[in-house]
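Two quick folds needed for the group meeting slides. Do the first one here.
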Amino acid sequence: MADEFETVIGLECHVELATATKMFCGCANEFGAPPNTNVCPVCLGHPGTLPVPNQRAIEYAIQIGLALGCKIAPHSLFHRKNYFYPDMPKNFQISQYDQPLCVNGHLDVQVDGQTTRVGITRVHLEEDTGKTTHAGATGRIAEADYALEDYNRAGVPLVEVVSEPDMRSAEEARAYLTELRAILEALGVSDVRMEEGSLRCDANVSVRPVGSADLGTKVEIKNLNSIRSLYRAVRFEEERQRTALESGERLVQETRHWDENRGITSPLRSKEFAFDYRYFPEPDLSPLEPDPEWIEQLRAALPELPAERRRRLAQEHGLEPRQVAQVGASREWADFFERTVALGSDPKAAANWIIGDLAGLLNEHHVALAHSKVGPQHLADVVRLFASGHISSAGAKSALAVAFESGDPIEKIVEDRGLRQVSDTSALDAVIEDAIAENPGPVEQFRKGKEAAINALVGHVM
């Protein structure tokens, strides 16, 4: 029965922009400041205050739209999105509604060698809300004794990127968010730290019979704090909906909460419709009408985007698709690879060491590449010494692991730990004679025909 349904996924991604100040006032846009210190009468919604748009935020939003192939609207409006919640000091959010800044773009993603074009409905500007902390063991509102409000985040410039419902699997959704994050990182418009909330994603998931053109009942999933969370939540939700339909259960349009620890979604509230927010044009802000010449200047200044960089890495260095996909997954990894190659490393060998042993050490110790003690010079030295035969594969792995812990130069580690291979035959003869003399048991077993006993002697020599 499960094969009779297909999953339909659309993502709404919110990007906090890395501007110096907030969207409509001069308060600092700073993560981690003491609660309610980066606030003023404007972002707190005091009577008589007026918003003033942040030009750099508008510039960043246009750059995002251009990078996603969007049309930049010659005329767009800010609206008031009205709803009442403690993290909304004005009781409305300044956002964009039916006339957004950027429309009709796309993002190409690859899964298992297949490319899927995901449409971008809109890229629009708005302001962020404050942060609510629910005091309780789980942090859930229903189980909290009280809540605390921090308005430092209220008014921070936010860009919402809304996709078309063009994704058909959790793998495609994961690839989309990964690629979008890489593009935002390359543009330098956000630090895209999902753990700090500067990149947030809501997933709209429904299922429908295969071949149907009608969309199923949509469920919005919130509390997706990582790319892994998105993947797991979509996998769970599509299975939940398919099971419900197979058993004749009626699905309802709602917002559901993803529980990372339990690995399930649970009802949060009924899903709002646009008319619930009573949108109307923001009376205190003029329309946005960006100069076409300015738009073209921003287009010309766009950096090399991730897909372009991956194509260049493949062409210049002959990397295999698997290598280029992993090395080019982010600006940080691609920069590391190119600096390693610039130090004289063979590109394919460098790529293999980066995505193999180095990535393994980072995952094992839960360390980000940016915080690793291993730099391009370490890796270049490992590649060089291994390629020249001065250290063995085991020695190279050992040296890299020590450098990961200490940060010491590879050459020093090799010398201090005696990892350099001996290629002088006469020197090896002496070592072999010592091994034979010190291991009479394995020697006797080997002489009696037990060939596996030689391994003990080889290990001793090494």
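Then this one, please, same format:
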Amino acid sequence: MITGLLAKLPQFFQKIPAWLLFGLLVALSATGYGWLGYDTPRTNFLQLIALFGVLFALYGLVLVWPWSRRYLHAWVGAAVGFRLLLLWAIPNLSDDYARFVWDGRLLAHGFNPYLYLPTSLLNSPVLVQAGLTKELFDGLNSPQYFTVYPPLNQAFFGLAAWFSGQNVWLNIVCLRSFILVAELGTCWLLYAPKYPRRVLIYALNPLVIIELTGNLHFEGIVIFFVLLAFRWLQTRPILSAVALVLAVGTKLLPLLFLPLIVSQLGWRRAVVYCATLGVGTGLLFWPFLSTELFQNMGKSLDLYFQKFEFNGSLYYVARAAGFWYKGYNVIQTLGPALSLLAGLGIVWIGFSKWAGFGQNFQGLMCRALLSLLVYFLAATTVHPWYITTLVALCGFTVFRFPVVWSVLLPLTYAAYAAVPFRENGWFLLLEYATLLLFVALEVSYLSKATWTK
């Protein structure tokens, strides 16, 4: 539907030679990514939103243009090139990388990162022994919380820290290299000879490129392993479980797909699958196991659901009702309650017999997509990079609302331009009203559409 609307471009554009248009679009996009990745602080909202706007306009033009197969392949190469262009950038739209370096240095020097609160190390000999510095500490955005990054993620942090020593820039380049390799794998999994355009939905998406490669978020690795797990689910269930272990070992979010997997496999095969998942995840955590591990991670996860709030939708509506009824922020009860509600919705989606949700691969991806949507709509915190998984999944379905959402998410950076930090309510209303409108339109259109392969 969206593609059909965008495809109605003025006829005179089609008179431009393909090689000239390709070169012009690549040059403009590369300039935009370089400017955004190297010289746009997140406090400069006008520059940031203008560059994102231009990049998304170019992205939309590429998706609807009648390229030959040769140029479609060239665009995949260009997508890789845009990511390589950002290889040497220090993230300027996110400061999460400081915690990656911090945890990595602890692990590289033989310390369990799950046991140490950053604030407790300032006057500790561990600070010097692990090569940590006050400058690095000052860059942490949550020094009062224990780390929540699972063991495979910690392994990436530790390997990068071991290789780079005290060089923060080299550490960042190493971490970004892991994400780049995973992104190449994701593009390979998305590519299909019959539907070569499908890979471009994800590969060229500006939010995906900036948030994963540019801002160094490890959803890029999670996406690769999740798609691999889904690819192997019916034909190689044990290998699929191993792939999901690696996804969960990077971020815990893929555990949301368990109801869907049980529904697809049936209970007997699902028992073996879940046992493999449990054993594999336990082995990843084994080197770090201690009572403090579960206590500390539990505390931080609990705080995530009961204290952090950013770009919420249903939560913000319920929070406003709570203020009106109670007179204060009821996030301590709302966060867990909405999580439980989302969990029930995900179970329903996983086992639903609703028309269009077949047991084939396309139906599987559709259920996975809507499961994540339900989770994010109920979440207290939805950062822009969270949605990149939806963009990857939507390529296998007729749904394109994740693409629309990705266009709107740069608006959330307006909060960083405000002093003090403050979200813009009008932008939130625009974001979620537009998103829900497109979700409603596409769900109603589902019965008339045919699945892509």
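Slide caption for protein two: Residues 309-453 form one domain.
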